[in-house]
Fold this sequence. Notes:
Elements: H1 2-27, H2 33-40, H3 44-47, H4 49-60, H5 62-72, H6 74-93, H7 98-126, H8 131-161, H9 166-169, H10 171-209, H11 212-230
Helix pairs in contact: 1-7, 1-8, 1-10, 4-7, 5-6, 5-7, 6-7, 6-10, 7-8
Amino acid sequence: MAASQDRRWLALALISAVQFMVVLDIAIVNVALPSIKVDLGFSQENLQWVISAYALAFGGFLLLGGRAADLLGRRRVFVAGLVLFAAGSIVAGFAWSEASLIGARSLQGLGAAVISPAALSMLMTTFREGRERNIALGVWGAVGMFGAAAGVLLGGIFTDLLSWEWIFYINVPVAMAALALTPVLLARVATHVARDSTCSARCWSRRVSRHPSSRSRRRTTSAGRRRRQSGSSPRQPRFSAPSWPSSGGERTR
Length: 253
């Protein structure tokens, strides 16, 4: 039991790290925009698309990512989103023109839109309703806020110490580590959750079957079955005919 509890919190750490990476990439390019403009020859009008392409793809495909997680499986869609995000980061780091960088940022946004709903769904199903889930959701929200605030700071550090390409390259080892840990952590958590759900459904069915209304329905069904087997028809309710006063009589008050 303790091992499964520890595994769930490790799964939360993995999901939170991926969420931090996803939110971080919204703002991490802000400080690097002047360097990107000089190196790739961006026009001032198109420079904003380095940020907007990611944000639009991220927000526009969130519903599609959630639906895909429902149909294809949460862990499978989560892994596919990590692959897309890592591929977009590699292409963005090797970008050679405006169109290549904007396209790579759109691919990153698509990967983020696939990752976030699948990760949140796994978080909701991993932790039981109550204190554990509240803590997990609090960590999830805090990581998202910290990622948005840290993006500007880390973008400036990587741009000054290394180059603007590293604001994209840094996502690759994080995504690769998440891909390696996902089968280890999230698969076992999913098995544990499935067992808990089966037990809960089984216990719920037992509670419903013990309810007084269920017992009365079973008695009614058994009585109807015995009547059908004996060939007798169910009893019809008896109604007494109403008595009407005679035409010559007086009404009594």
